[in-house]
Amino acid sequence: MRLEDYWGVGPKTSERLRESIGVEAAVAAIEDADIRALADAGLPRGRAVRILRRANGADGIETLGTRDARDVYDDLLSLASEYALTRHAADRVRVMTPLSTIDERETRLDRVLDARDAWLGLDEAAREAITSAFDAYDREDGTDRAAVETALELRDAGLRGGTFAALDDLDDDALQAAAEALGTIDADGRVAAGADEELDRLRQRRDAVAELETNALDVLESIRERGVRDFEEFRAAFVEYVASEADVRRGRVEAAVAGDAHDEADFAATSLRALRSELDDEVDEREATVAAQLEESIETAREGVETAVSAVSDIALDLSLGRFAAAHDLTRPRLVDDGLAVVGARNLTLSGEVQPVTYAIGDHDLDGPSAGDASAPRADASTRRESPQTPPTGDRVAVLTGANSGGKTTLLETLAQVALLAAMGLPVPASDAAVGRFDTIVFHRRHASFNAGVLESTLKSIVPPLSTGERTLMLVDEFEAITEPGRAADLLNGLVDLTVDQEALGVYVTHLADDLSPLPPEARIDGIFAEGLTEDLALEVDYQPRFGTVGKSTPEFIVSRLVANARDRAERRGFEALAAAVGEEAVQRTLSDAQWSND
What we know:
By secondary structure, this protein is of the alpha/beta class. Among the domains are: 197-300, no CATH class; 334-553, P-loop containing nucleotide triphosphate hydrolases (Rossmann fold, 3-Layer(aba) Sandwich). The protein has 23 helices and ten strands. The chain has helices at 11-20, 23-31, 35-40, 45-61, 67-81, 87-94, 102-120, 124-139, 144-156, 172-182, 197-214, 216-224, 231-246, 250-256, 264-300, 302-327, 381-386, 408-423, 452-467, 485-501, 555-564, 569-582, 584-598; strands at 334-335, 340-345, 357-361, 397-402, 432-435, 440-444, 472-476, 505-509, 523-533, 539-546. Helix 19 (452-467) links the parallel strand 6 (440-444) and strand 7. Helix 11 (197-214) runs antiparallel to helix 15 (264-300) and helix 12 (216-224) packs across helix 15 (264-300). The longest helix has 37 residues, at 264-300. 41% of the residues are buried. Residues 362-396 are annotated as: Disordered. InterPro entries: DNA_mismatch_repair_MutS_C (IPR000432), MutS (IPR045076), P-loop_NTPase (IPR027417). GO terms for molecular function: ATP binding; ATP-dependent DNA damage sensor activity; mismatched DNA binding. This is MutS domain V.
């Protein structure tokens, strides 16, 4: 295959790869998702990642319908790669893309969850042994020898079956011999020092003679200093000197000396050259013999070596993803034909204590947490009575309304995370989830630029995927940020109708629920509510949406906090004027409640 046949590899990139590592090595790096090899060849790392994603999952990349969806995808893979056991495993994680079929997703889920369970089932000593083995593998750049030694380390740690099943039938003795051979012979058949004592001795003698040959004038000077009086004495002294300095038998040196030299310098140079040539031949002969023996050891274990090389790479990837799943308590989603429903879902980019939420669009059979469940959304008893915990089923569209800083955008992002992880065959951050098949995932964050260019670019980004008639998931934040509220309400009504007509699924965030025309029966309005201020005047929000209820932005809570935190009288008077505008009684009641909680 030509390099130019790969997406993103133009003439300049192709020439750079060809000159740096050659066509064959470049194709192998692309097919093996080897980011490091391409980066070492001079490609910017980000470009290498993009090329490899397209090369190994072009159809999956097309699932990412917008820049914001691609950002969520990048964030997820960056987070997952932090748990990689090797550099190559991290590279393989970074180039993962959504998978085309349910079977592919189920297969990867099986592997990742088996690896998660395997990792969680190990004691600390076993985990350290695995980490140490893969660290050594990385230090040796993942060579065949490093892979074989890592496989032996994993077997020595007693790891069998499941994630490690590919290593179960390996012959330890044959692998050990192969590892030693792989460490002492290169691809050109050159044998490393230490592989054979006789070869080392021959090389040492050859190198010593070569050193004397290089410094023949010094040899002459050393011999003349012995006070030789004629050529015969010079000849005898030369033989003695070379035999002593190079640890070569006198008879061997005698046999190599020149018989027709013109002078002492010619005699020394010709004799040393002849002796070094003879020793070269001996080294080559012995090296060929040793190389053949080493190759035989490798060939005897060839199948085991190939198994180890492949298995260690796959185990590193599976365990890396398993560690990611274990660290974030990810669970298996049910892959269904239609719908997106989550119970106890968490956003992976949030830190600290996170309130899990339950939400659904489309058909599903999930139950929300009961009122007595410890994982139920935090709210008082009256709120729970008003807000059913079982998500409605069958609605194609939800219009999400509610409090400022109420987590509406975070909920959209959480749904995008769940949908993308499931599409890649990875477990999701929810206690239960059912995720349908989506050809395109459209996620659009709020952009606070009020101009016609932003409106046009936004519509061009989100409407075409919706118009294809394929399975599309729409997760769109506040339209009112990009055009005036009245027109934004009109556009939102149009999007809701189009989503229903195209049999897509959508969640649209807005503060304009009261301005919308009657929604189609396949759509509903949900709300998130602020419940007051905490004792330190932080906004207290129940992030669990109330289904079929319009949420309120409750600005009196924000104004109450501003009044309480005013730096001086003038500033306080200004905020009190706003309090009068939004409802002074509500503001005073909020301040009183916060003060009572603080007391």
